[in-house]
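Lecture 7, part 2: worked example. A protein chain together with zinc ion.
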Amino acid sequence: MNCEEALPLMHEYLDGSMDGAEAAELKRHLLQCPDCNRIFRELEMTDALVKSTPRIVAPSDLTDRIMKSLPVRPKRDSWLSWVKRHPAISVASVFLFVMLGSFLSMWSQDQELTVKGNNLDQLVIEDGTVYLPKGHRVEGNLMVRGGDVQIDGDLDGNLVVVDGKYHTASTANISGKIYSINQAAEWLVYQVKEILAPAAQ
Ligand SMILES: [Zn+2]
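Predicted complex, written out as structure tokens:
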């Protein structure tokens, strides 16, 4: 089996529509081929995400929109036509897979200190550390990436710390949850959850 043959079989495998002999052949290829192995693990993760998020309702024209946005490569024609015949699971996988690609490139390129939230004037940023001093208050979620965080004041939302450490003083008051993320994969899962279920806390 070569890589061109393996990709559509991965989808069938994740769909649960594959017999034992074919599955065994695919597994043998995945053991030998690091590229396909990586793709399979990413597909498996997006598949699990899709299945664990029953709230996704894809717009009816999503298939067409994704198909139009994909680069046309003659070599992939057989795979694309397979996707067109199996729109439900594969569109979600392709959609998340495309996003995964852009997240991972964003992850490696952008290691600057990034702070996101409302009323950031309440914060003090010094030597790569973001302070929320006692008596200061941030309304809504606070996301800090590529730096450390020290919370002494009030945060009325979630604290998301990406690629950094955080410390909360005894005077700190955080109404939401604290997410500490130091892996690209965790970051992706967090982002996907944010996109798919923006209302969930
Ligand atoms: Zn391969």
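The pocket of zinc ion is lined by residues 3, 6, 29, 33, 35-36 (CB under 6 Å). The two ends are 45 Å apart (CA to CA). Keep this in mind for problem set question 3.
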